[in-house]
Amino acid sequence: MKDLLCPQCKIGRFCLKDEAGERLVVTVGKDSIIRPVHAEQSLEGFDVSVLYCLGCSWKGTIRNLQ
User: Fold this and answer.
1) What is the C-alpha separation between 58 and 10, in angstroms, rounded?
2) Which of 11, 12, 40, 51 is the most buried (most CB within 10 A)?
3) Which residues have C-beta within 8 Å of that of residue 49, sequence separation ≥ 6?
4) Which segments within 1-66 are labelled E, that is strand?
């Protein structure tokens, strides 16, 4: 399945942050489901409302992805 891409730099890897500032690398599928890059990791405790692109300075929501 193809992943959604950053509207600015067109890569498909993002990170989420938790309250402690820790990061989790994720992808977002065409079905708009956020998936950790490493399957054994969990989204629990991470803010899924804001995505941070790993390739540029873009940040936003799933709705903004291409």
Assistant:
1) 11
2) 51
3) 61
4) 14-17, 23-28, 34-36, 51-53, 59-60
The residue written with tokens 């940040």 in the block is 59
Closest by CA position to 34, among listed 62, 63, 57: 62
| Gyration radius (Cα) of the chain, Å | 11
A 10 A CB-CB count for 31 gives: 8
The model's pLDDT over 23-65, given as tens digits with 9 standing for 90+, comes to 999 999 999 999 999 999 999 999 999 999 999 999 999 999 9
How far apart are alpha carbons 4 and 21 in whole angstroms? 24
Strand, helix or coil at 3?
strand
Residue type, 3: D
CB 50 within 8 A of CB 43: no
